Amino acid sequence: MLKFVEKPQAFPGKRAPELRAEDFREIADRYATPTAEDQAGRCSQCGVPYCSVHCPLHNHIPDWLRLTAEGRLREAYELSNSTSTMPEICGRICPQDRLCEGNCVIEFSGHGAVTIGSVEKFITDTAWEEGWVEPLAAGPSRGQSVGVVGAGPAGLAAAEYLRGYGYEVHVYDRYDRAGGLLTYGIPGFKLEKHVVMRRVERLKQGGIVFHEGFEVGRDGTLDELRQRHDGVLIATGVYKPRAIKAPGVGHRGVVDALDFLTASNRKGFGDAVPAFDDGSLNAEGKHVVVIGGGDTAMDCVRTSIRQGAASVKCLYRRDRANMPGSQREVANAEEEGVEFVWLSAPGAFAAADAAESAVTSVKASRMRLGAPDASGRRAPEIDPAGGFDVPADLVIKALGFDAEDLPTMFGAPELGVTRWGTLLVGKTLMTSLDGVFAAGDIVRGASLVVWAIRDGRDVSAAMHKYLKAKAKAAAAKVAA
User: Which residues form the Dihydroprymidine dehydrogenase domain (predicted)?
Assistant: First the structure.
């Protein structure tokens, strides 16, 4: 250990930009074993592990780094897996530069953070290859069932824990494959789909029943699920795209980010996708403009490159230092040929012919940063210096997501919501309906996968407590 002075930081090597832009494979392979051990050995084993403190799951990071450095990989995996249901997924897609690695003590000392995410990926991928990932073991049957609405990271994490407690678990999801945004929202170059599917298959083999293509409100109401199960968890995530209020936003060729990414991921699965095949959701040969500065925008620009776009520009209303997306993702995008137009925002979308109504350019406003807003960030405002036009055949709106109107969709008007449309829960994570809990983005708003997993872990413990009390009360009633 403590090799951070003599051993420089080294991430797994990335493929050349021109090669990785030709496919949707992950851009870097995992470490060779000696390199992983060396990089794990850079950990300073500090007394207060800020990496763990700033991890939403509070993973035992220094401990499994030490085990990795000592060549005790199976023990490292078991410790990593003890706090996370998806360590290899978090190792791939967590913004480590903002969480664990960004708070690494040796990063503060100027030696470069321990490459925690890459080691985490290495540990669990090795575990899968070596057969160390054990089947999901269900606990002794409790005679109660739980319905989980949503097969994203929060729902999957909760389902796994609840099955371990001994409940019969049914997962309902509107899509034809489980995984939520892990499956259809995140591109393969960040998270190859077999990584998600093997996790889902493990849950299925563990006795969790998946009802894919089941939409609450269309195929059954929330009340019907409540009658069918002893407890219900709503973990739908947030899927309503935030709108742009600008003239011409309805022109053909102005599309939502999730529609674009879902079409691309479905093609990767080999599905028939008419909107991709007819060019509506395909960037090939087009001048693409992506609006936004978060991780979804980065996914869109890098997907456009791989689809063969003629050019790809990203318009963001703040500067580089104030963008919410991962700086590593920005660097990857720039290497692959994306042009970032900082301090710019769409003012209108132009079309050459009103009858044709196909977008031809984005009329952008130059922006500047003014006084800090309520969050403490400097608020963008229009720069009176003027605007400019950006040619565009395809404009992708990636401004984030809000909650859908679940009370209406689910036929449950009594389901309480906040002023942002997210579900209102108490300290027990129960909603306004008895026995109905909620977790993940549908409670906290659009957030990170690692937070969704944490929420799934927390809500499963809360539901376990509730269901035990419910069973005890039912038994007492029968005895009386």
Answer: 20-131
Give the C-alpha separation, 453 to 184, whole Å.
18
Q: Which residues of the chain have pLDDT under 50?
A: none
CATH 3.50.50.60 matches 245-399: yes
Q: In what order do the strands lie in the sheet with 339-341?
A: 254-256, 394-397, 287-291, 311-315, 339-341
pLDDT at residue 324, as a whole number = 86
Specify the CATH number of the domain 145-239+402-479: 3.50.50.60
- Name the residue ranges covered by the structural domains of the chain: 17-130, 145-239+402-479, 245-399
Q: How far apart are CA 237 and CA 404, in angstroms?
A: 9
- Residue 394 and residue 289 in contact, taking contact as beta carbons nearer than 8 Å: yes
pTM above 0.90, yes or no: yes
pLDDT (0 to 100) of residue 325: 83
Count other Cβ atoms within 10 Å, centred on residue 329.
20
- Residue 145: is it exposed, middle or buried by C-beta count within 10 angstroms (0-12/13-18/19+)? middle
pLDDT at 355: 64
Cα distance between residue 342 and residue 303, in whole Å = 20
> Could you tell me which residues come within 8 angstroms of residue 45 by beta carbon, excluding any fewer than 6 positions away?
1, 2, 62, 66
Neighbours of 348 (CB within 10 A): 17
Q: Please report, as a single letter, which amino acid is at residue 29.
A: D
What is the pLDDT, as a whole number, of residue 354? Answer: 67
What torsion, rounded to 10 degrees, do the Cα atoms 320, 325, 330, 332 define? 170
User: What is the structure's pLDDT at 1?
Assistant: 64
Distance CA 10, CA 118 (A): 10
CA distance 43 to 314: 37
Same fold, 145-239+402-479 and 245-399: yes
Residue 164 near residue 207, CB atoms below 8 Å: no
The CATH classification of domain 17-130, taken from the options 3.40.50.2000, 1.20.1050.10, 1.25.40.10, 1.10.1060.10: 1.10.1060.10
pLDDT at 378: 87
The Cα 400–Cα 422 span in angstroms is: 14
φ and ψ at 161, to 5 degrees?
-65, -40
Asked if residue 117 lies in contact with residue 93, where contact means CB atoms within 8 angstroms, the answer is: no
Residues 373, 379 contacting (CB under 8 angstroms): yes
